[in-house]
């Protein structure tokens, strides 16, 4: 009966100091590891969000530019005149801000560049029915971003060849 009493006393006493210390150490190591991974996860989410917004912005801008007239009634270069250097402003959800002076909601600035001469395919000659359109997008709350003076790492650049049919 004495051995049973000792066993019961031991079960009712709880954990020893060494057991509690080891359990806390293992828990702290696990929590520290998980918290250490959190900044990397947040950075990955931010980059994915930016990439998604940039893609949406480029689709909107390219859609507008590719549907525009290339020449006006007099035969002048309407596409370059209208879109070369044109800026677009977008909010955090990649929705275009139609106002000329965007306020606090400004999150992205896009600028279009249209090559004035016909573009050439690799190994070919310049074709008057092809134009290279470049859209640069930057995540910035400032509307007067200077893309030419900025580091190329500070913005995303998308380029496409656009063709038109002969008329």
What descriptors fit this protein?
167 residues, alpha+beta, four-stranded antiparallel beta sheet, 3 helices, 20% strand
Query: What percent of the residues sit in helical stretches (DSSP H or I)?
Result: 40-55%
Could you state the order of secondary-structure elements as H and E? HHHEEEEEE
Radius of gyration: 30 Å
Question: Structural class from helices and strands?
Answer: alpha+beta
Name the beta content range: 15-25%
Total strands: the figure is 6
Mean pLDDT: 84
Low-confidence stretches: none
Shape: rod-shaped
Largest sheet: 4 strands, antiparallel
Instruction: Determine the number of helices (DSSP H or I, runs of at least 4 residues).
Output: 3
Order of strands side by side in the largest beta sheet?
1-2-5-6
Q: Provide the domain count.
A: 1
Gap from first CA to last CA = 108 Å
Give an account of the 3D structure.
With 167 residues, the protein is an alpha+beta fold. The protein has one domain. Helices cover 41% and strands 20% of the residues. It has three helices and six strands. It has helices at residues 2-13, 17-66, 78-83; strands at 87-90, 108-114, 119-120, 126-127, 130-139, 156-163. It has a four-stranded antiparallel β-sheet with strand order 1-2-5-6. Strands 3-4 form a two-stranded antiparallel sheet. The chain is rod-shaped, with a radius of gyration of 30 Å.
């Amino acid at each position: 009966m004495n051995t049973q009493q000792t066993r019961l006393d031991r079960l009712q006493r709880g954990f020893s100091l060494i057991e509690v210390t080891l359990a806390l150490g293992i828990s702290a190591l696990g929590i520290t590891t998980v918290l250490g991974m959190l900044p990397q996860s947040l950075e990955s989410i931010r980059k994915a969000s930016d990439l998604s917004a940039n893609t949406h912005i480029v689709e909107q801008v390219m859609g507008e530019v590719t549907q525009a007239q290339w020449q006006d009634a007099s035969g002048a270069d309407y596409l370059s005149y209208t879109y070369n250097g044109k800026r677009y402003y977008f909010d955090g959800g990649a929705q275009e801000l139609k106002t000329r002076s965007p306020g606090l909601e400004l999150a992205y600035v896009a600028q279009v560049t249209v090559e004035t001469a016909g573009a050439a395919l690799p190994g070919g000659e310049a074709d008057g029915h092809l134009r290279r359109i470049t859209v640069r997008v930057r995540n910035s709350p400032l509307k007067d971003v200077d893309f030419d003076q900025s580091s190329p790492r500070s913005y995303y650049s998308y380029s496409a060849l656009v063709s038109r049919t002969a008329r």
